[in-house]
Structure formats: C-alpha cells, structure tokens
Amino acid sequence: MKPVINMFCALALLFGAVACGQKTLLDGEPLSVRMVRSEMQRHPSPATLDGIPEGKIKWNYTTGLELLSMLDVADVYGCDDVYDYVVKYYDSIVRPDGSVITYKKSNYNLDHVCPARPLFALYERTGEERYKAVLDTVFVQLQEHPRNDDGGFWHKKSYPHQMWLDGLYMGEPFYAEYAVRNYGESELFDNLKADIVGQFVAVAEHTYDPATRLYRHACDVSREMFWCDKTTGQSAHAWGRAMGWYAMAIVETLQYLGVDETTQPMVDILNHICDVLPEYASPESGMWYQVLDSPGREGNYEEATGSIMFVYAMMKGVRLGYLPADMKEESRRLYERFVERFVRENEDGTISITDCCAVAGLGGKTMRSGDFDYYISEPIIENDCKGVGPFIWASLEYERFH
Q1: How far apart are alpha carbons 108 and 28 in whole angstroms?
Q2: Interatomic CA distance for residues 382 and 95, integer angstroms
Q3: To 5 degrees, how large is the angle CA 16–CA 308–CA 176?
C-alpha cells in the first residue's frame, strides 16, 4: 500500500486525541478503525475471534465475516497491519495444497461458504494458487449443493429441505462474486445469475408472513420438522438477525450483479423490508428487538446484531441506489442512534458493542423450538462477530458520508 495512505491510517488513529470539543464517540477517530483496533487488542490471534479457544482453529463463518470487514478498513485507510492480521488467519488454515482445516465439502453447509469471501482479495493481491483452489472448491460445493424442487438450497445437508434466511447471506454474495469474476463474459453467466436471484425469491415465498409483512426465520419445505407450521412450513417467528442477514445478503449480492430486469425482485424485497421495519422499531431508541415481530413483549430486548445489520443494509442500499435517496438522512440518524444505544467506550480505550445475541437456530442436537421463549433464552454477550463486522461496514458507510 502507498506510504501516504499508511500515514492517513496513522493520522486517523491519532485524530481522537486531538479532536476539538470531542463530546461523543462520533467526534473522535473513525469508528470503523477504532473497532478494528479494539478487536485486534482483544484478540491478538485472529483464530480466537468468536470465542474460539487459544490453540484451536476453525473454518468459521463469523470469523470470515469479521475479517472481511477488516479487509475493507485496511483498503480504505491503508492499514497494512490490519491486512497482515487477516492474512495470518488464512495462512494458518489454508494448507499449501489448497485444502482447508476443518472444512469438508461433503457436509454441504452454506455456513462454510461465507468464510471463503476474503480469499478473492487475498488471491488478487498475492496470486497464491492455494487461495484460488479454495474458491474453486467452494464454488463446486454450491453447484453440487442439495436443493428443494424449486431450486432453493438446503441450509445444510443435515437440515434437509430447510431454507433459512441466514443461508442467503452465507452463500449468495460469494456465489455472485465468483460468477462475475469467472463467468461474467460467458454464456453461462445468465444462468448463474438467474439461479442466484431465484434463491432470494424462493426463500421470500417460503418465509413471508402476510399478517406481519415480515419474513420468518426459516421454512421446512417438507413440513416435517417439529418446529414448523404443518400448513406453511414456517418457523414460529421473525427473528431480528435472520432478517438482518437477508437484507445484507441482498445489498452485498446486488453490488456484484447490478440492477436490471433479472435482479429487480431482489430490489423490491429490500425496499419492502425497509418500508416495514419502522413499524417494529423501539419508539425510544429506534432500534429493533430480538424477536422482531413481538416488539414490547415482556422479556424481549433491543438486540444489537440485527439492528446494525438493518442500518448497514439501509446505508449501503441508499449509496448504491437500491433504496430511495431520501432515506439517506434517516439511515445516518439510525447509525448515530445505534452508537448511542449499543456502543460503549471501555477504560482501556477500546470500544465494545453490547446486547448481542450469541447464537440462535432451529432444531439441531438441542432441539431448538424457535418459539418466543427460546429466542430470548439464548445468551446475550458483547462484541459478537455478527455485530462487529456489520458495525465496521456501517461505520465505513457513515464515514463516506463525511
């Protein structure tokens, strides 16, 4: 990276110390940089992100999500040490022959597609063939991935016939970037593009709840799982982070595919989501609840990861023209309210995101029911990768406005 950009990175780190009249976190150094530095201080080894024990390493979607956001900060502010931090993880998990520790293609798990995304940038910069080998393997996984009769990907092989909103983020941005980079000029591209859009349309049809105008967390197309409605196949609630994943997936996939007649259904879904969300926001903070379709219900709480996913998707959607331009000021205001509500400055100078749902899902070994009591029973933690990554991206969007 150019030395002048590295100097800017250093100046950004110092700016908070000399800013005149600093009154809020927004008045100091860029929060995107500050959050990256905070995470690097908390986790000197990137392999320990998401609470993975020291000495272990895991091909993990949450790790990949946060490291991808860090790469964007490294690019914008020219921070070479941040880039090196990301490389450290991938160099430790991608073997010289292109195989990946703890990844198994035959599991056909959409979660295992997401952590490959940073490898596009790493391969472009380094030319290391092992990185390309991983990208090719993950693309093959998607081409072989089990599907429902309508073409929708199963969330994973061990969850047959299930489509989760989460899975659209796990698979589709990678699928779109790979398709554009490798098949953008070929006759095959139109088929790949239609397949990608079809995933968004299929999951919308399976999960839409006309009573709330929201999308439920998941659907079992076979109507067999204990957690699903036997008529609709849907899970019991619209979970905030699941819809956050879905909104982000639309924005990050469209950035590769663009807007045309084929992708217009994705734009329409995104606009629908942003039209409905204000009805379910907290009137005090403007943020959203863990169980999205039950605002104000006793035990429900304002949850950070889903909230920042919505804010990020709005800000980026406005900038790229997928959402109306008159949403720009509102999306900025929501970002500021997120910082006020969820971001805390610590005594050691780091910053933290509070009130993050640690994990939520359906079925599995613990027989997760997907009812209201289940969602509010999951642990609430700080600095969950699923909130940190979108917060870094939302901060970059906010900083672009300035």
Answers
A1: 44
A2: 32
A3: 110
Tokens of residue 49, six digits: 């992100």
Query: Tokens standing for 258?
Result: 């663009």
Tokens standing for residue 124: 């472009």
Report the C-alpha gap between 285 and 302 in whole angstroms.
9
CA distance 132 to 57: 21
Please state the φ and ψ torsions of residue 143, each to the nearest 5 degrees: -70, -25
CA distances 68 to 13, 115, 119, 154, Å, are 20, 8, 9, 25
CB atoms within 10 A of CB 364: 9
Place of tokens 């929201």: 214
Please give the span between the terminal C-alpha atoms of the chain, in angstroms, as a whole number.
23
In angstroms, the CA 399 to CA 402 distance is 5
Q: Report whether 89 contacts 68 (CB < 8 A).
A: no
Domain segments of the chain: what residues?
A: 3-401
**pLDDT per residue as tens digits for the range 142-199:** 999 999 999 999 999 999 999 999 999 999 999 999 999 999 999 999 999 999 999 9
Helix (H, G, I), strand (E, B) or coil at 3: helix
- Name the CATH topology of 3-401: Glycosyltransferase (1.50.10)
Q: What is the DSSP letter of 247?
A: H
Distance CA 272, CA 286 (A): 18
pLDDT level of residue 9 (50, 70, 90 thresholds): low
Quick: pLDDT tens for 283-300: 999 999 999 999 999 999
- Whether the full predicted model's pTM is greater than 0.90, yes or no, is yes
CB-facing half-sphere around the CA of 23: CA atoms within 13 A = 1
32 exposed, middle or buried (CB, 10 Å; 0-12, 13-18, 19+)?
buried
